[in-house]
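Hi P.,

Sorry for the delay on this. The queue was packed all week, but I finally got your sequence through. Input first:
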Amino acid sequence: MRENSKRYLQSFKLYLEVEKNYSKYTIMSYGSDILSFLVWLDGINIEEVTHKTISEYLAYIKQFNYSKTTLARKISALRTFYRFLYREKIIETNPALGVHAPKRGKTLPEFLTESEMEKIFDNIKMESPAGYRNRVILELLYATGMRVSELTNLNFENLNLEENEIKVFGKGAKERIVLVSERAKKFVENYIKTVRYLICKDSAIEPDSPLFINKTGYRLQTQSIRNAIKDAVEAIELPKHVTPHVFRHSFATKLLENGADLRVVQELLGHSSISNTQIYTHVTTERLKQSYNLAHPRAN
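Then the structure:
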């Protein structure tokens, strides 16, 4: 791989982090995708790549039978990379124009019922300060529909518990307000007053201090939350793959089932497009059909 290609890749990843504010996972994935492409080029200058070159590369990677989602991400990485190169005037024309990702079939998001949610809550061991913190986190995820990355990035200055509000920064650093239920609010207040100090006695409470910390006083990482959920789900032998995002799906589904306006749900989730929120209407429709088929004497 050429030295200038390595430099372009490093600049691209910095662009994704600083200007686009992409998640660490997306930056890592896009970086890996572009690295694979540059290795495949086998010494060809980036400036010499044509639309035909990219088409040949796509034909090459299709033999590996990637899922539509993975293939779509790889194409998105290429398109974003070449838009960046064109913007920086490294290339005169963009060879990735007109390259489209395969259409992905819509899959309904996994969600949890109220009883499943309560079972998970009940199986978070709250005897330890860390266990109580984990319970607070799960209560907050379900009550607000926050992404797990948004939750771990919370600082004290983001809280307005008197008004049952929390300010979060979503994808692209977009700011929004999420609402907190009284139940979740009480958990958070108790955590701040009595539990956070027990997790790490030396951790300060300043406006820019992280709300959720580990035993060393540093900001809690998302993997710790995933592990807590995994342990609780395994304890009740729930036959579902439950991630922090499933809590977000469950939040949206429950709101729509109880008559919330789709635009309100879009606003609370921080979706840029209403089409991203509409998937939850399919979930609730499917549940209606199931209930109908079970309850109506002439449904079948």
